Backbone:
């Protein structure tokens, strides 16, 4: 869950950052475009104003030719521009009548709007003007704005300096914008991620609660408080499904417990009748029936034990001497070990470890492991019971061992390895796992050096209770 949640936050942060960068780029681009358009528009207006100013200074000579009386400030502006700013006066046939730079006639004339059009025009870049020229053309004459023989007044300006100025302005604008907006963007992304994390907290709580739900915690429900409105129906439906599963599980447990309890009396009667059979008439049949009855009785007892472990909480608050647990479990199986031709050995520390738990349940769990070892250990070998601090009980045998693929499944209900002998129910190790989990510990099997298996109850190493 933590990994998936981190992935969600990271994806959200990337998407917010990308969206924010796109928004910043669009905003900056729009502002820059509008700024450039405004500056160019101002340049156009200024150029047309200069053309109008030049036209206002025109008058006609007696022979009808234009005469220009330019104020000193205006004349100085054209004179000191080094050809960057120029003016020309054309007649209706686009012949030059006046010019601040006659050499530029050949450059401007091909791009003048044809009569009677006026307005702005552009001259493409050339060797003299690398950025081209922008010109403004108006009409004026000796007899009013147009007159009988209108003159065409042109003012043109090189664009290299203006383009350099625009580029400088854009750089300054973008740099200042980025320095201002990027910290705001980073703060916005951070706030968004933190807000999302806070908003997902109820979902994290629900996920954690779902991870804790198991057969022993079937009554737990997912928290529904504080959930987003979109998730509340889903969590409510899941809680409804959990309630139905709990009822089904309770019904199953009751059925198993009641069935096992109901079978005890018939099995006891059956065992008594088998014992009463005459041994001289059919000894083999009587012995086989006795073994079958014993297996049935053991199965019923294990089913009852499993039902009790699943239905009732186990009291694990009492002090327990684990060495005494081992001694009691071994003593109860000494005769079985002799019949199996196996030696039972106890290895214990000088200072027996004490732990909190349920003594009877631990004796039962360790006894099941010893029974399992006696079943698989070859005759003439040793089954060793080891008690180690802080709270570990181990049973080591020299049997065939457990394949790696079966080491988890054999601790589930009715889980049986491929080499398990006939007649077993597959509940003994499941009971061990339940008792270990009830003590906050775990049960596992490990390969033993030199062959065999080591079954371990580690009360100090919690694990998720096996399913089933």
Residues:
């Amino acid at each position: 869950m933590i990994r998936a949640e981190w992935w969600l936050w990271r994806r959200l942060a990337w998407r917010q950052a990308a969206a924010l960068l796109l928004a910043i780029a669009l905003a900056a681009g729009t502002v820059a475009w509008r700024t450039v358009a405004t500056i160019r528009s101002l340049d156009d207006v200024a150029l047309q104003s200069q053309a109008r100013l030049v036209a206002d200074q025109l008058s006609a000579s007696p022979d009808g030719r234009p005469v220009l009386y330019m104020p000193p400030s205006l004349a100085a502006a054209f004179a000191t521009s080094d050809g960057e700013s120029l003016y020309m006066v054309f007649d209706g046939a686009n012949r030059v009548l006046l010019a601040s730079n006659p050499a530029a006639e050949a450059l401007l004339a091909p791009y003048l709007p044809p009569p009677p059009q006026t307005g702005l025009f552009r001259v493409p870049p050339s060797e003299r003007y690398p950025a081209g020229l922008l010109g403004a053309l108006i009409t004026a004459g000796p007899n009013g704005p147009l007159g009988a023989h209108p003159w065409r007044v042109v003012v043109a300006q090189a664009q290299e300096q203006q383009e350099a100025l625009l580029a400088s302005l854009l750089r300054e604008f973008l740099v200042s914008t980025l320095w201002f907006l990027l910290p705001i963007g980073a703060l916005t992304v951070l706030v968004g991620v933190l807000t999302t994390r806070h908003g997902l907290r109820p979902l994290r709580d629900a996920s954690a609660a779902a991870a804790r739900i198991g057969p022993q915690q079937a009554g737990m429900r997912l928290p529904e408080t504080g959930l987003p409105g979109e998730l509340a129906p889903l969590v409510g439906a899941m809680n409804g499904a959990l309630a139905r599963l709990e009822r089904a599980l309770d019904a199953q447990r009751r059925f198993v417990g009641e069935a096992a309890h109901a079978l005890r009396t018939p099995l006891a009667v059956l065992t008594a009748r088998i014992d009463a059979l005459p041994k001289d008439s059919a000894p083999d049949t009587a012995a086989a029936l006795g073994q079958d009855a014993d297996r049935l009785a053991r199965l019923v007892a294990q089913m009852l034990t499993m039902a009790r472990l699943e239905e009732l909480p186990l009291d694990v608050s009492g002090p327990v001497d684990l060495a005494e647990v081992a001694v009691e479990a071994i003593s109860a199986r000494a005769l079985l070990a002799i019949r199996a031709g196996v030696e039972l050995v106890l290895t214990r520390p000088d200072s027996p470890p004490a732990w909190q738990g349920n003594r009877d349940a631990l004796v039962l769990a360790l006894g099941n492991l010893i029974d399992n070892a006696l079943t698989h250990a070859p005759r003439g070998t040793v089954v060793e019971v080891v008690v180690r601090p802080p709270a570990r009980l181990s049973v080591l045998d020299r049997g065939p061992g457990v394949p790696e693929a079966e080491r988890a499944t054999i601790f589930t209900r009715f889980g049986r390895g491929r080499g398990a002998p006939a007649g077993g129910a597959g509940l003994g190790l499941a009971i061990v796992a339940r008792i270990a989990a009830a003590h906050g510990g775990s049960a596992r099997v490990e390969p033993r050096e030199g062959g065999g298996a080591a079954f371990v109850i580690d009360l100090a190493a919690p694990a998720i209770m096996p399913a089933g």
About this structure: Residues 143-147, 464-468 have pLDDT under 50 and may be disordered.
